[in-house]
Amino acid sequence: MKLNADNLNINLRHLRALHAIAQEGSFSAAAARLGIVPSALSALIRHLEESIGAALFDRSIRPAAMTPLAHAFLDDTAPLLEGMDRAVTRLRQNAGLETGSLAIGASPSAISELLAPLLADFLADKPQVRCLLHDDIAENLAGMVADGQLDMAIAGRALYSPDLRQSEVLRDEFGLACRRDDDLAGGPVRLRDLRDRVLIGLSTQTGTHRLLAQSGLPQALLDTRLIAHSTVAQLCMIRAGMGVALLPRNAVHLFRDPQIGFLRIEDFELQRVLYLIEPARRPLSPIAAAFIRLFRAHIASRHPE
């Protein structure tokens, strides 16, 4: 289709201005709807009239009224604006900014305080976006990110892989998790106080167990009688009075259970580090990229340089 060069001076801003005046009934109301000052709206209409070489408003009366030519132009251009709105809506949807899916992995202790509040705000503005939140140990989550089953994960550091990019987001100190009515709850606590206590450990596959094993902790405190597969199971066992556990602070506060407390251990210093795990070789979907940008901005606001 050959374009008439004389028509190139007319654009969507002119059309939206004329249609806004027709719908609102006045220049001032139309300007407010478009977010511009009335003088700017008047300038748009004058430019449109100059481009077509005819008046679109009868200014001999007050308030100025649209001419028959203007009404005919409104009828001709209404389908154009409606089609443009539909096309832009489909474009945004196809780009994944309003519809689509988001798959996130996380260690359980990273969900309630760090991830869930941010994710809730993000999804509130995107009611058509579906979200999967998968909790597991770091190695499993990292494998799922590398395989494309997850867009990202928040977990302890996984083994090196060229398919992954891992960046630190949070440091968390280890301490003792116990019931608040436990004899130890009054503190202070030292490692020797745990020798005769029932300790609840974690599976050797977990990052928490590996950190404790590499910390120089006495072997007697590593070879626990009770072993849980997850932090959730540990906390349930602690709440039931079955024993105590060495855990990061955020893990202890996972459910904000008033019956479970966190105690610092005076002669034991260890930190668990959480990482943002992303694919290094696979492009992210627009919705995943948008959430990761939000997540990074949130982390930066918590820890300004």
TrEMBL record:
Annotated GO MF terms: DNA binding; DNA-binding transcription factor activity
GO CC terms of this entry: cytosol
InterPro entries per record: HTH-type_LysR_regulators (IPR050950), LysR_HTH_N (IPR000847), LysR_subst-bd (IPR005119), WH-like_DNA-bd_sf (IPR036388), WH_DNA-bd_sf (IPR036390)
Domain HTH lysR-type residue range list: 10-67
Keyword Transcription regulation assigned: yes
Alphabetized Pfam families for the sequence: HTH_1, LysR_substrate
Transcription regulation in keyword set: yes
Keywords of this entry: DNA-binding, Transcription, Transcription regulation
UniProt family annotation: Belongs to the LysR transcriptional regulatory family.
Protein's recorded name: DNA-binding transcriptional LysR family regulator
Organism: Paracoccus pantotrophus (Thiosphaera pantotropha)
